[in-house]
UniProtKB/TrEMBL annotation:
Belongs to the ATP-dependent AMP-binding enzyme family. This is Long-chain-fatty-acid--CoA ligase. Pfam families: AMP-binding. Signal peptide: none annotated. It comes from Peucedramus taeniatus (Olive warbler).
Length: 147
């Protein structure tokens, strides 16, 4: 649906500084971010999360499944922040040479269906996936660390 306004406290914004640290990223990582910045996942978890650990953030204006792996190779991407459908778009692309030749080691996000999760890892290699769930206006966040 359309974006909806939600009050986000200063404390919650500051807590987003540690998001990538909680999922296993560090200042050595390059994070690929193609999520809208008007959404908490893109702005606070994505951009603010990169600031929090000192990581490089590759901002894409629009997600392109056909360009994704080339972008990852060109920019040295090691972490991909997704919303579940982005991974499905990648899995549904025609196979191409080089889609397993990348430095991506971590995909983090929410809404990834189990069948897409399995297909993603089988096709693109041993990428660690950390599924998260949290509400912009809520006070609880869950992480699936075990996969």
């Amino acid at each position: 649906g359309l974006p909806k306004a939600a009050r986000v406290s200063h404390l919650k914004s500051v807590m987003c500084l540690s998001f990538y640290e909680l999922v296993g990223a560090s200042s050595r990582d390059v994070v690929y971010l193609a999520l809208p910045l008007y959404h908490m996942a893109g702005s606070l978890l994505g951009v603010v999360g990169c600031l929090g650990i000192g990581a490089t953030c590759v901002l894409k204006e629009k997600f392109s499944a056909s360009q994704f792996w080339a972008d990852c190779r060109a920019e040295g991407v090691t972490v991909f922040q997704y919303i579940g459908e982005l991974c499905r778009y990648l899995v549904n692309q025609p196979q191409s040479p080089g889609e397993r030749q990348h430095g991506l080691r971590l995909a983090v996000g929410s809404g990834l269906r189990p069948d897409v999760w399995r297909s993603f890892q089988q096709r693109f290699g041993p990428v660690r996936i950390v599924e998260t769930y949290g509400m912009s206006e809520g006070n609880v966040t869950l992480f699936n660390y075990t996969g």
